[in-house]
Amino acid sequence: MSSSAPNAASSAGQHADLAQKRVLEDSAAANGSPGSSAPQQEAKRKKPLPPAPAIVGKGSDFTQEVWQNAALLVDKPKGWTSFDVCAKLRGALKTKKIGHAGTLDPMATGLLIICTGKGTKAIDGFVAMEKAYSGTLRLGQTTPSYDAETDVLESLPWDHITDEDLEVAKRGLIGPIMQQPPMYSAVSIKGERLYKAARRGEEVERPARPVTVHSFDLQRSAASTEDLDFRISCSKGTYIRSLAHDLGQSLRCGAHLTALRRESIGEHDVSNAWSLAELVEAAQTARSAELL
């Protein structure tokens, strides 16, 4: 009898230790702390990625099923804001989830990627892609917006500028650079969009931001010697208006943008984009067919 008491106590102690160990293991597993299976916990926390959106270029099959997860390639018309295009397609597609992957100014034309449905989750990926533009800038004139959307602020002599001067100024804007956004932009400083302050005639201090200009081809326009035609490839966040302004500042004659077209975003080219009118018609046709 006397020998069995210590054994019973020992057994009870072992059971208590085992129970406590299991409680600790369960707690560790629940909190993902050491002792749990890290890959298993990570797998539980991670949601599966949505399928990549269908790239819907000109002539692609276009059905309601497709635009539940799509990236629409649109050639934005001049005079439309990027928001205007989204609003037009929101009505045509009868969808609430829609957004664009990188703003184009109203004056600009060219490739705008509009994501719909689950495709809106891919917007950041498109925004991060390299962009290519073509356009025209005018020497000898500055404007508050750095483009032709506002009146000429100052006129300066420009006809003394040589091709060598242009080449030197251009080279200074290629590669990683720090760029100050225009006052007429949607950049927010202290909770207010810059363009709102600009419309009040105010100048706000705005920090320069890092961008990269991969290539910058420049030549005099056949139409006018004061105009320069260009092609640029650059990183996200680059203001082409600011490049035109900065080139003019470097040449000490001023410059502003008079035309701009976005040619590509990553591997997606404007030659494969729908006109807005064609896309709206295709959407209406698809909706009508599926209602029959």
TrEMBL record:
tRNA pseudouridylate synthase B C-terminal domain residues: 241-287
Identify the keywords attached in UniProt to this record, alphabetized. Isomerase, tRNA processing
Where is the Pseudouridine synthase II N-terminal domain positioned along the sequence?
91-240
Compositional bias segments (type: Low complexity): 1-12, 27-39
Enzyme Commission number(s):
5.4.99.25
By its UniProt entry, which Pfam families does this protein fall under? TruB_C_2, TruB_N
Q: Where is this region: Disordered?
A: 1-60
Q: Which family does it belong to?
A: Belongs to the pseudouridine synthase TruB family.
Q: What is this protein called?
A: tRNA pseudouridine(55) synthase
Source species of the chain: Coccomyxa viridis
- Lineage, please? Eukaryota, Viridiplantae, Chlorophyta, core chlorophytes, Trebouxiophyceae
Gene designation: g5450
